[in-house]
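Final report, closing paragraph on structural work. Over the funding period we assembled a curated collection of sequence-structure pairs, and we close with a single example.
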Amino acid sequence: MNTPIRLMIVDDHSIVRHGLRSILELEQGIEVVGEADSGRVALGMLDSVMPDIVLLDLSLGERGTAEGIDVCQTITTGYPQTGVIVLTTFLEERLVLQAIRSGARGYVLKDVDAIDLVKIVRAVNRGESALDTRSAALVMRNVLSGDNVGQPALEFTEREMEIMHLLRQGYSNRQIGDSIAISESTVKFHIRKIMRKLDVNHRTEIVYTAGKLGLI
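Its predicted structure, as stored:
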């Protein structure tokens, strides 16, 4: 039997948490292992509940979206095996990009259909990245903005292309190194080069940006 997806819900509204739990617990293969009403509580629970996925509301406490972004960054940095899906009411290009740069693998609006939400949870658990349609459109607009007009075509080595494809599959640096027989430090070197070429600041952005540019 497959191990169920361990999921934690972080939202400062109890009615939202309970609603999400009631929906997700009906799905076979998903287990809600914890709820938190603040970033502080959520971070304090991670070691005990060990979630595979965190559904994270961006607006938490007095600091609002700034706290949500900080919590996202802390989780993805300290617990890279945990996939963060931002679930929010805010459809703003700035916030979508900030969430991605902070390591979120998904960005979904709270009016998402339950079926689509479950699909996104399963996709992120497989190591994929997932945006709902409207959030993806904002990322597309940013990638295809005038900032790229007139720049020379991007050129990548065969090794860099190989690494980008493995990143898209959700491989960690160590897994990439094992897969193509190079050291983890060499993988990091190649990733830094790729990030410079794509003008991005986080490995998650590599997948989105390279995908929108048709590179992977």
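Residues 148-153 have pLDDT under 50 and may be disordered. The first strand starts at residue 5 and ends at 10. We thank the funder for supporting this effort.
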